[in-house]
């Protein structure tokens, strides 16, 4: 249960920082996307020896979409969210740099 609350705690800390909104949103997206992706792995390790084919752990194999569709979609969504977070963080740093340059 505590693992589910970690992204909310991190986001509340991030939102109280004195930075621009791009950095805050990018960091929050990164924290949430990583925690959601690794949630199944944490559940598998917390609750023990379940059968690995139930869904607590996802195989990723882009040549076999029939049996590994859940893992493939999870890794693609993780990459897209991390890419969006990286773009927002870079935009935030550019905005910070420009605001300090004009000051």
Distance between the termini: 46 Å
Overall pLDDT confidence: 83
* SS element count, helices: 4
**Beta strands, count:** 0
Explain how this protein is built.
- The chain has about 100 residues and is mainly α.
- The chain has a domain at about 35-103.
- It has helices spanning about 1-15, 20-35, 40-45, 70-100.
- Helix 1 (about 1-15) packs antiparallel against helix 2 and helix 2 (about 20-35) packs antiparallel against helix 4.
- The longest helix is centred in the C-terminal third of the chain and has 34 residues, at about 70-100.
- The chain starts with a helix and ends with a helix.
In brief:
The protein contains 4 helices and no strands. The chain is an all-alpha fold and 103 residues long.
Helices and strands in order:
Blueprint: H1 2-15, H2 21-37, H3 39-47, H4 69-102
Name the features.
103 residues; 72% helix; flat; mainly alpha
């Amino acid at each position: 249960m505590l693992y589910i609350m970690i992204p909310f705690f991190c986001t509340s800390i991030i939102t109280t920082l004195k930075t621009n909104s791009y950095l805050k949103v990018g960091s929050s997206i990164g924290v949430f996307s990583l925690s959601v992706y690794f949630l199944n792995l944490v559940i598998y390790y917390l609750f023990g020896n379940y059968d690995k084919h139930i869904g607590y752990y996802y195989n990723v194999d882009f040549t076999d979409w029939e049996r590994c569709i859940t893992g493939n979609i999870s890794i693609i969504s993780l990459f897209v969210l991390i890419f969006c977070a990286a773009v927002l963080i870079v935009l935030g740093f550019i905005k910070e740099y420009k605001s300090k340059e004009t000051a």
